Structure formats: structure tokens, C-alpha cells
């Protein structure tokens, strides 16, 4: 069978947007050499202004060429060898964007070495989840006030599931004990009490915000967000946010490093427990079976309130700085993102790297880290988020974790606004390709141009040389105007990163090194043409953007990140349905005005790899005029 380029997506969930804006989601079960595609478990996502998003189950669907066609029940198993030539189907509306599922495609392709550049380009360039981009345009959240309660410790301990440091005990009797092999052990499953997920919000007396949504999943995803990060560093402690993150889940006043690791191991959460620093937040994250939430919440809070910062543990973490720097250098996409921020915000706020440098090692000490924690880790700057956990349960254990302790007092810190400077940063790297990004200043939170900016990103889209053939459905501007027209271009995609007071929009491309000048000229041309948007392009972009938002709402990790970042930076939370209304209200004139405003900012350029053929900054700047 001929290669279609869809092999990595088998058994993956993909989405299809039709010409009239209908969104279909299903699992890719098979395809033939003509790129006819079978979707099973297909659903149509219908957006209703009053009811939000409804799912209409359709069963088995076929994408035949450029048409979406419905097929009846099929008895035989669908697999990658199925011949679709004899399947009869009635064509519906033409499929205008079969590949609106770029995020899913990238996730499936990330294990393939040939697709590493495309699979990480959006994530590496900081495309934050779309759900939180317009939080300033949604109503403020009403928080339920939660008072601290003094409780009997013995009674509290009775609520915990049985746990031993070395092993777990059976919390319930084994129903299969004594069963022989000739006896059926199948039990009638208990019918779950399914209820629609509900977003709930609370706030403790000390100011920490708590948010949760229970989708009744088996594993709970917990995240403790702190409004800190590299932008709040000073010349005297550059890299300290990274250092603080490296000390996550080590020794605290309650548990040693060994006991912390062993506890998480016993709960099956050691690999899902991470602490990472960004530019505007530090995240402590754990994924664990939901019955062990009462253990994990105090453990996470203890890492924030009572880290011991033992000298030998701090010293042992010095090697992790070098490891993280080597990982960054070995990932060209992430490296370009870091360089572009340095160029766009030269020597200020968002231009400060989230990673510590070798120069920072001299003050990688317990005293430096503790001073940073005391300045930034007040409860008023924290948000605790839970997905697949009951809100009452989460609130209760967060309250208990803070009840008997004096939290870090709130300190006023200097409110330094991000200053967009524009600029040019280039670095030779081991990659044989040229990795080039052109950036412009975009909107931060609270500005009306956020929704138009996101739509412009969808209009530009992106594509890869491996997915540019007939039937791939990549019909965005960058795919049709650059990737398909330029055999030397490996991939090209648009990105947009939003922060609390600024943003970074642009195009990122990877090409053969000697053709960097040609690709740069084409990328500049794509940016220059942004103010001209047709009605059809805008309608398609709206459908794709809404589809992306609804898909992200189905992903626990994305949902937790959206809730935490919205509440942390804005104090508000907007659902996917609310954002869909904002998207629908955007006009062509607003998109054109937003594009012109971005083009009026200074150009930022970042290049990595073999950069000998990249044009000068002034040449690229002139190409945008």
C-alpha cells in the first residue's frame, strides 16, 4: 500500500471541520492509498448558545477524498488494511480543513525523529492554550469563602486511606479471595452517577484560590500554581526561579527527600510529579489515583511552605542545571523560542530565560533560594487546581494543609512592565538545518486584540513537508504558500504567546541552511499579507479555533493548565462556550486592524543551527514594509 503520511495517526483521535463550520471528532481506524479515511466512534460537536457544547454520536464515518460521507454499521473489524473502494456513501459538505487537528498530529508524530521539528514547534514557541487568551473579556469568578477550622487530629487521620511507608494495605476486602478457577468472578458493575462537570471556585482566608472540575476520571490531576518565575528575578539572583523549581519534592519539615520519593512511588505518582519554572509562574504538579488526594495535597503544600533547602541537596541539584541547559541546546525549537524572547524583550522581564546559566551557579545557595521564596510565595499569589476531584474534598485538604501554620506574608514587589524592544539574536548550533523565527509584538491579557490575534494564527496555520501531499488537508497560508511551494522547507508554522501585559506573535520555519534567505523572504511576505483576510478564510479560522478550544477542554492536562493560568494572571475563568461566543463576534475589520497594529511593532529575529545564509536584520525589516 502506498504511503499516505497518515500512518502515525492510526488509533489517534482526529477532528474534521467542514465548509459550513461543523466539527466532527473520531478515531482514525484505517485508510487506503487514495487517502480515503475511516473514522470510528465519530461524534459531531454542536455548539449551542444556551446549552454550550453537545455531542451527537454518529457511529462510523468515512472521509472519501475531499468529501465527508456517512456509512452504516460495519460488522467486520476496521483496520489499516481495509479496502474502501466498495463502500457506498452519500457526500456531505466539502472538507475544507481535514488537518485542523494539528496539535493531535504533532503529538502522534513526536516519537518520529523526522518529525521532531514540527511536533514541538508550537509547544516550544510558547503557544499557550487558547482557552485562557480572552479571560479579561469574561465575567469575574465568584469564590466561596472557606474559613480555617480547628479539628481533632485523630479524627482527621481516620479519613485517610490505609497507608504504610513500605506498602499499601487493602482498604476494602478482596472480593475474589477464595475463588477457584472454575468459578466466575465477574461482578455486575455499579452504575456510575454521571453528572455534568461543574467548575467550582473557593478561596481560603489566607488568600489562596482553589478551583476544580470533576469529570469523574479515575486519576486526579493536581496543580499548585505560584505567580513567580523568571520575570520577577533581579540582576542579583538571575536563574533563582529555576533553582527553586529544582528543589521541588525534596526534603521538607515533614518528610525527607527519600520518604517524599517513596511516598509518591507507592502512590504511582513519582513519574507524574514535576516542578517547573516558567516566565510568569512556577508549577508543582502531581497526577495520582483520586483516592490518594488526601495524602498528595499536604505533600505539595509542604514543598511550598516548608522546604528545608539542605546544603547537600542544593549542591546535588547543581548538575541538573547543566543537564537542563544541554537539553535546551539539543532541542532547536525550544532554543529558538528562548532566543526570540531574548531578542524581543532585551534584558528585561519576559526576556529573562527560565533556565539558570553557568554564571548563576555561584549564588545557587539555600540563602538565595529562601530569600526568593519569602519574596514571592505568599498564598495570595497561589492557585490550587484539581481535575477529577470533588471540590469539597480538595478544599477540605487544602484548608487543613494551611490551617496550623503561618504562611509566608505578602510582600509588595515592584510592578515592572514588560518592555518590547525587538532585536536580532543568532546562535550557531549542531543542527544541520537553519531554524528561523520572525516575531512581532501582540496583545497581552485585557486587550481587545486577543481574539483577532488567535484567528490570525489559525489563518496562517502551519505545515510540514511530510504532510503536504494531496488529501492531507493542510490548506492554511503557510502550508500552501511556503511548504508546498518550497521543497527545501521542512516545516513552517505560526505561533502566538500571550502574557499578562504583552505577547509575541510570529512565524517559525526550518529549512536547508543554504536556502535560509529564500525562506526568510517568504515568511516576511506571509506576515506582510496579514491585513488582507477574506470572509471565507475568517469563517474557516473561527471553526478551527473553536474546534481546538473544545478539544483542549477534553484534555485533563490542558484543562488544568487553563484554569490555573487564567486564575493566576487574571482572577477570572472563562469556559470554552464563553470563548466561542467571543470568537464568533470577531469581524474582518477587527482582524485587519489587529494585523496592522502588530506589523507596526519592531521586528524580532531569532536563528539557530546553520545560520550563515540568514539575511541581515535590516533586510528582513525592510521586507515587512
UniProtKB/TrEMBL annotation:
Query: Which InterPro entries does its entry note?
Result: Lsm8 (IPR034103), LSM_dom_sf (IPR010920), Metalloenz_LuxS/M16 (IPR011249), MPP/UQCRC_Complex (IPR050361), Pept_M16_N (IPR011765), Peptidase_M16_C (IPR007863), Sm (IPR047575), Sm_dom_euk/arc (IPR001163)
Species in which this protein is naturally found? Effrenium voratum
Question: What family is reported?
Answer: Belongs to the peptidase M16 family.
According to UniProt, the name of this protein is Sm domain-containing protein
Q: Which PANTHER family match?
A: METALLOPROTEASE (PTHR11851), MITOCHONDRIAL-PROCESSING PEPTIDASE SUBUNIT ALPHA (PTHR11851:SF49)
GO cellular component terms, alphabetically, are: mitochondrion; spliceosomal complex; U4/U6 x U5 tri-snRNP complex; U6 snRNP
Q: What GO molecular function annotations does the UniProt record carry, in alphabetical order? A: metal ion binding; RNA binding
Compartments in which it is found: Nucleus
Q: What is its main location?
A: nucleus
Annotated ranges, domain Sm: 1-77
Q: Which UniProt keywords apply?
A: mRNA processing, mRNA splicing, Nucleus, Ribonucleoprotein, RNA-binding, Spliceosome
